[in-house]
Amino acid sequence: MPLILLIIALVALKYFEVWKFADLSWWWISGVMVAAFIWFELLEPLLGLDKRKAHNVDEQRRKDRVKKAFDDMKKRK
């Protein structure tokens, strides 16, 4: 996510010609975009980071479901 925010900031600064970013070449900005694409489409799945995030969400959902079931059982007694 920080990489996407960096791209948005660079594009906005270049477009509105702010400070030294006015002289920045669009090739640098597109290079950052290519790096983001490579990270999100190739490296993250290769390293399993996308699956780890999904697994953590599923694990938290399971824990919440178990806790709710035990709380409901305590209320019945």
How would you describe the overall organization of this protein?
Helix content is 83%, strand content 0%. Helix 1 runs antiparallel to helix 2 (26-47). It contains three helices and no strands. The chain is mostly helical and 77 residues long.
Please outline the helices and strands.
Blueprint: H1 2-15, H2 26-47, H3 49-76
Helix pairs in contact: 1-2
Count of domains: 1
Distance between the termini: 47 Å
The biggest sheet, with number of strands, parallel, antiparallel or mixed sense and barrel status, is:
none
Order of helices and strands: HHH
Shape: elongated
Overall strand count: 0
Proportion of helical residues = over 70%
Query: In what range is the share of β-strand residues?
Result: under 5%
Number of helical segments with 4 or more residues: 3
Q: Return the structural class.
A: mainly alpha
Taking pLDDT < 50 over at least 5 consecutive residues as the criterion, the unreliable ranges are none
Structural features:
77 residues; mainly alpha; 3 helices; 83% helix; elongated
